[in-house]
Write a structure and sequence with these properties.
single chain; alpha+beta; two-stranded antiparallel sheet; two-stranded antiparallel ribbon
């Protein structure tokens, strides 16, 4: 669940990374994030097993422990779920 939370956390696009508004044409601060638009009947998650070490430029195997429940509520990671959470804050 921690990994899914970091996926939808979002990144603030400001300064040189501002996004141009399609409606008015000006650049504005915005949040860029990945979410699930619609939930599939079967969800397959791919685990990242290797990472790049920028000091040596070699791939390094990740040995992090990853736990997940048998039943997973993925609504907090959907656009609808994020909108509801942000409305409460």
């Amino acid at each position: 669940q921690e990994s899914l939370s970091s996926l939808v956390e979002g990144e603030l696009m400001e300064g040189d990374n501002k996004v141009e508004c399609e409606a008015c044409g000006t650049k504005k601060d915005s949040i860029r994030r990945s979410t699930m638009g619609t939930l599939p009947n079967l969800l397959i998650l791919h685990l990242k097993r290797f990472d790049l070490d920028f000091n040596t430029f070699e791939t390094v195997k990740l040995n992090n422990r990853c736990e997940f429940p048998l039943v997973l509520n993925v609504k907090p990671y959907t656009k609808e779920g994020i909108d509801q959470i942000e409305a409460l804050q």
